[in-house]
């Protein structure tokens, strides 16, 4: 089905560009819902990422951060210029699931708790999740970490020395990873490799399927 929106009922395309540049909500085409249009008046079929897609992004983020952290730790402690970062495949599941749960915490707490309190809650959750997953993996001799050499460890599965890094990581996780991931959208009608463009025009009118 093709719908034509007459020029008399909507701004011209040039006006749309001006309104879009100004960030005006008037750039939306009358008669179409906000979900059917992208910001600036362009047509879109965008929808939020699925939970599985977000889990994947969170898992890759955690995996990358652990490699970078262990590489930096090796450099600081042993001054190793090879920066050998290490991790485990288990980290994909551990980080992906943990951050997805923190995402739900963020959505519930953002209007109720200040930022620092939220980060403290995330840190406590991180300790609980790290201990739980580590304890389960240890039953199969598969736990990839051991904090026994630290002074304030508990069963070698968690350690108080990591409280500040976990807190800082929680802050970065909410402010940059979770918030930006929740802003991402799929365009189900877009063709792979083709950038999005302005709405199709037919005889001076906006044309949509």
Automatic annotation (TrEMBL):
Xref: PANTHER family: TRANSMEMBRANE PROTEIN 229 FAMILY MEMBER, TRANSMEMBRANE PROTEIN 229B
Region called Disordered, residue ranges: 190-209
Protein name: Transmembrane protein 229B
Annotated Pfam families: ABC_trans_CmpB (PF06541)
Keyword line: Membrane, Transmembrane, Transmembrane helix
Localisation: Membrane
GO terms for cellular component: membrane
Domain of life: Eukaryota
